[in-house]
Recover the amino acids of this structure.
């Protein structure tokens, strides 16, 4: 369970008072309204062993900001020597070695590079918790039209999640996975791109496809695996893909999309295209070898790709504190020579601004960029999971209510005078109705013929596959009650 601790506003020193701090499953991070560096809080008392998550647990505070603290940034001997030699002059300035990558100076002091810096990398945001614009923030303005579309899409995604989730509970689809809590990441990142930019998703980013115009009917057809599904019913629900929308088909093995993204971005570079690749990944996905291969490859070939990491605190039941000891993911960029930023993933304007800037740099300077968005997976991992078995209900409720990205953005759009209560009701009723209709249509649409299950891989199917096909047809004929009646055998 996450380690809970509390910092009252009195304990926050003056210089950080202007920065609001979040209750985060990945420890407290200073929130910065500009993308530069700033101080961050050093929360809680020291805990010295690896069992920190089970110690120092304080009662869950009510009605005040709660900080999920961890103490892995505790001072160590190495940290006290913190990076001093990186900034100080070499004690023998004339002694250096020319090494691939530049000159390296020699020093005669034995200093290890510390494992972490004293302060965590701050988190860029533009809107405060109430959706008020933070004075002097550094952000990309969005037009009324774009803002309203962003908000409407965030609501549609929420409703889509609710209805498909219920459909799964009713046994109408076999599986589902929601994006609850990550609506701003989904929609705002998509809004900052152009349709020529190529998306390689993990799986919790259907909002990008929604933004690009994939219809509710197309979502329903895929989840129901009918004849209209572009994957011909061969994939599990939520494995969307659309050539028309430059959205690669989701594949279950996580992180495989990253080296592919680097390669595709390199091809854009070779063709002098004014576009980039955006590859999404979860915090858990960063532990895969493909994450490292993808980032390194992209850095070396200077490929225009944005690696967008949704750090939502959990990889199924594994908390980020059990996933890595680094200051999240943002710091990993530098190890590969990649420019990086940490952003508040629940602030749609900050995500939009960071992705716009990243896109400009990726294309104009032909380089990869890493974005780490701090957020929280409000739903269970998928319909195969019950997250109350490994995390506290209060933690979920806190993020669902106090940190909801949709309400936060709504407040801003409403304060701009671009949204009303009446529009809200109309939108919600209309999307709900469209979705229910889409599911009904998808249910009535025939399933793809059985032959499709064996096509598209081999020109000439090997004999073992032919045997499997014949065996399957025989089984369906023998047990018709166990298979949908509309499958053509
Ligand atoms: C290569 C690989 N290893 C393990 C899995 C099993 N698996 C599916 S989702 C998941 C967790 C991923 O967590 P994260 O990347 O944080 O994404 P989130 O679900 O939080 O959005 C794991 C381990 C997998 N699909 N592929
Ligand atoms: Mg995760």
């Amino acid at each position: 369970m996450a380690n809970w601790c509390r910092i009252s506003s009195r304990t926050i020193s003056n210089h950080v008072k202007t920065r609001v701090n979040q209750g985060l499953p990945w420890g407290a991070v200073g929130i910065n309204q500009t993308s530069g560096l700033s101080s961050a809080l050093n929360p809680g008392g020291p805990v010295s062993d690896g069992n920190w998550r089970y110690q120092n647990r304080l009662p869950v505070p009510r009605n005040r900001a709660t900080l999920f603290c961890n103490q892995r940034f505790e001072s160590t001997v190495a940290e006290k020597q913190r990076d001093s030699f990186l900034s100080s002059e070499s004690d023998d300035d004339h002694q250096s070695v020319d090494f691939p990558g530049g000159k390296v100076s020699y020093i005669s002091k034995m200093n290890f590079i510390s494992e972490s810096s004293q302060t965590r990398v701050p988190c860029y945001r533009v809107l405060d918790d109430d959706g008020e614009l933070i004075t002097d923030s550094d952000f990309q303005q969005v037009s009324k039209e774009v803002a309203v579309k962003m908000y409407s899409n965030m609501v549609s995604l929420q409703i889509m999640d609710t209805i498909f989730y219920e459909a799964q509970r009713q046994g109408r689809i076999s599986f589902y996975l929601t994006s609850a809590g990550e609506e701003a990441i989904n929609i705002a990142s998509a809004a900052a791109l152009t349709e020529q930019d190529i998306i390689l998703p993990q799986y919790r980013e259907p909002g990008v496809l929604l933004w690009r115009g994939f219809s509710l009917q197309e979502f329903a057809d895929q989840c129901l695996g009918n004849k209209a599904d572009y994957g011909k019913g061969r994939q599990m629900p939520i494995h969307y893909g659309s050539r028309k929308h430059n959205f690669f088909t989701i594949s279950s093995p996580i992180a495989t999309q990253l080296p592919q993204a680097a390669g595709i971005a390199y091809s854009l570079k070779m063709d002098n295209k004014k576009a980039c690749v955006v590859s999404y990944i979860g915090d858990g996905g960063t532990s895969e070898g493909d994450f490292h291969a993808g980032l390194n490859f992209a850095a070396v070939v200077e490929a225009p790709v944005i690696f967008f990491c949704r750090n939502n605190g959990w990889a199924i039941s594994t908390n980020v504190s059990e996933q890595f000891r680094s200051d999240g993911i943002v710091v990993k960029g530098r190890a590969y020579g990649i420019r990086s930023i940490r952003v508040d993933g629940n602030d749609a304007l900050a995500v939009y601004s960071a992705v716009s800037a990243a896109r400009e740099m990726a294309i104009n300077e032909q380089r990869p960029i890493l974005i780490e968005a701090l957020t929280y997976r409000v739903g269970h991992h998928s319909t195969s999971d019950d997250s109350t078995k490994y995390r506290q209900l209060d933690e979920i409720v806190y993020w669902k209510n106090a940190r909801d990205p949709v309400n936060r953005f709504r407040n801003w759009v409403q304060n701009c005078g671009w949204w009303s209560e009446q529009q809200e009701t109309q939108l919600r009723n209309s999307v709900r109705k469209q979705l229910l209709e889409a599911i009904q249509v998808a249910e009535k649409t025939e399933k793809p013929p059985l032959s499709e299950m064996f096509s598209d891989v081999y020109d000439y199917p090997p004999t073992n596959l032919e045997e499997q096909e014949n065996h399957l047809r025989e089984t369906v004929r023998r047990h018709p009650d166990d298979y949908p009646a509309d499958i053509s055998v």
